[in-house]
Amino acid sequence: MTVEPARSARPLSASAPRATADRTGGSVNGLRQPPGGRAAWIAWSIGASVYVLAVIHRTSLGVAGLDAADRFGIGASALSTFSILQVLVYAAMQIPVGVLVDRFGPRKVLLLGVLLLSTGQLAFAFSDAFGPALASRAVLGCGDAMTFISVLRIAARWFPAAKNPLVAQLTGLAGMSGNLVTTVVLAQALHSEGWTPTFTAIALLGIAVFALVALFLRESPEGAAPAAPADGRPRPAVGQQVRDAWQEPGTRLGLWIHFTTQFPGNAFGLLWGLPYLVQAQGMTRTEAGGLLTLLVLANMSFGFLFGRLLSRTSRARMPIVLTTIGVTSLLWAVTLAWPEGHPPLWLLVSIILVMGSNGPASLVGLDYARARNPVERLGTASGIVNMGGFIGTMITLFGIGVLLDLLTPDGAGGYSASAFRWAFCWQYVPMAVGTVMILRLRRRLAAA
């Protein structure tokens, strides 16, 4: 993917001139550029293993929502608080984590992330009350926040810039394999082994991953361009670094793309998909788990497709984004408008397949930020963008939970199809806001 020459030839903010990577893989300012090759894929694979682990931890509640409600004696609003807090912590940590990655390197941040993930999940495994369980999910969310940006930074240091869109999509695809583990293995383990053994086993996976990163990860190749400003300038203060990243039009556009495209599939997969399919559509847990597995497989397929398109031309960015938003909105409208709130199986399969495009489309936002920011603040810019989808997810999770409780009489056994139908309409509020902001900032970026 190439950056338009007219825009890459000049700085796009009031900050000092950037030192961007040459997308041909040659050199810039006399500095050797990322080589790619086998060593690059090894480094990326080690970093991506941490992200896979993080996604397993992140999505574990998606197949355990009903079990959690029974274990802690809570309703929909309180149940949604688990995922909301986890996502809130994740979103709030994105800028601090981005700054940490820029200052201390991705390897140290990944190691800290694994420690926090394992600690939070182990505490969750032994929690038998709502308060301690909630605190453990907050710790888990903090560790989760440290993974994705770190992997992207490793990729930026190892691969030529033209390969970064593909590697970003492959990172998301690798994460979805963690989601697949959750929907296939974890769901079955919960049924057969119970709460504490299952979540304890997940927590202990962190030992192997920590050792892998500590012993074998090289975060950049020998002779790579330095992470500090290439012209010898001192690093800006943290506040100035964040402001410089935010002033880039591509960073703000990236945030709203991430916000608008990611949350429908995220909210469905993280929490509300299983209850909707079981309680509103009358499926068994096995049948519902199969459809959630389909969501993961669709996500992986779209990730590969979008990665190939984006590595060939940057012109595919906005068509991918707007098509994903439009088709997701249309199919949810048909699903929710279906008589009595019971759409046929083919329609449920269709909306789940379309939601599989949401996560890969959200990564387009990171590509806008990467193309518009110098290497020394890529972590900060990526952190700003990566907040978007999780803020949208948090708003959606909370809105659906509140509406479900409001629309369900006291003492009712579960939530009706009608309650889910109206509660899911809440998705159109953040979707409308995000779409307006994308169209507005798209014009501003074109004029920059």
Quick take:
The chain is an all-alpha fold and 448 residues long. The chain has helices at 5-8, 38-59, 65-72, 76-104, 106-126, 130-144, 148-158, 164-193, 195-216, 238-247, 249-280, 285-312, 317-337, 345-355, 358-372, 378-406, 417-424, 428-447; strands at 27-28, 31-32. The model is unreliable at 1-31 (pLDDT under 50).
Largest sheet: 2 strands, antiparallel
Strand order of the largest sheet: 1-2
Q: Can you count the beta strands?
A: 2
Beta-strand residue percentage: under 5%
Give the number of helices: 18
Mean pLDDT: 84
* H-E string: HEEHHHHHHHHHHHHHHHHH
Shape: globular
SS content category: mainly alpha
Distance between the termini: 20 Å
Helix content: over 70%
- Low-confidence spans: 1-31
Rg from alpha-carbon coordinates = 21 Å
Q: Which labels suit this protein?
A:
two-stranded antiparallel sheet, mainly alpha, about 75% helix, about 450 residues
Question: How would you explain this protein's 3D organization?
Answer:
The protein is an all-alpha fold and about 450 residues long. Helices cover about 75% and strands about 0% of the residues. It is built from 18 helices and two strands. Strands 1-2 form a two-stranded antiparallel sheet. A hairpin with a 2-residue loop joins β1 and β2 (about 30). The longest helix has about 30 residues, at about 250-280. The radius of gyration is 21 Å and the shape is globular. The two termini are about 20 Å apart.
Write the layout of secondary structure elements.
Layout (H helix, E strand, L loop, with lengths): L4 H4 L18 E2 L2 E2 L5 H22 L5 H8 L3 H29 L1 H21 L3 H15 L3 H11 L5 H30 L1 H22 L21 H10 L1 H32 L4 H28 L4 H21 L7 H11 L2 H15 L5 H29 L10 H8 L3 H20 L1
Antiparallel strand pairs: 1-2
